[in-house]
Amino acid sequence: MSHALIVIDVQNDFCPGGALAVPDGNAIVAGINALMPGFDAVILTQDWHPAGHSSFASSHEGKGPYELVDMPYGPQVLWPDHCVQGTTGAAFHADLNTTRADLIIRKGYNPAIDSYSAFFENDQSTPTGLEGYLRTRGITDLTMVGLATDFCVNFSAQDAARLGFAVTVRRNLCRAIDLDGSLDAALAGMTDKGVALA
Ligand code: VGL
Ligand code: ZN
């Protein structure tokens, strides 16, 4: 058994003051750092969009943030511009321990497809490569923490469970956006897929 800690999107834009701030997003950083020494591997994910990304409301005439649009791959929530490649907003929170990371994996770089999950883009079929990395390192168990519980943590955890990893989400080290009941739906969905909520 080999166990990885996956730290999802602990970036400035998801923390108070950021473009897509998750309430209390910064409150989990110290606890995440404290957890790192106990794992065989530490992996950080980074939401990493090109300017003008198709998930930005500003790219859709007449649409505003948090509205839904139909994309070729299904419904997509539109977001404020966030985590644009190379900007301060896309950088990790300054207090996050990035030194301990074995791998930093970026996602959302495809202009036409969003990527909540660390494993697959929102078409649910284009891989990021993370599965292969984990399998070739013999990692079987994953603990997930980070932002946001109901979007990127949720999609990553459900994909990982579907791929056969043993997945635990540490709820106290995650924070949610909670859009129209999305947190309750995410918790139910994760439980249904066999994700342990600790
Ligand atoms: C996220 C919305 C848009 C997340 C990323 O990290 O949960 N949410 N992009
Ligand atoms: Zn994003």
From TrEMBL:
The keyword Transferase does not apply. Its EC number is 3.5.1.19. GO terms for biological process: pyridine nucleotide biosynthetic process. One of its GO terms (molecular function) is nicotinamidase activity. Keywords: Hydrolase, Metal-binding, Pyridine nucleotide biosynthesis. Gene3D superfamilies: Isochorismatase-like (3.40.50.850). InterPro entries: Isochorismatase-like_dom, Isochorismatase-like_sf, Isochorismatase_Nicotinamidase. Residues 4-196 form the Isochorismatase-like domain. Pathway: Cofactor biosynthesis; nicotinate biosynthesis; nicotinate from nicotinamide: step 1/1. Belongs to the isochorismatase family. PANTHER family: LD05707P (PTHR11080:SF2), PYRAZINAMIDASE/NICOTINAMIDASE (PTHR11080). This is Nicotinamidase.
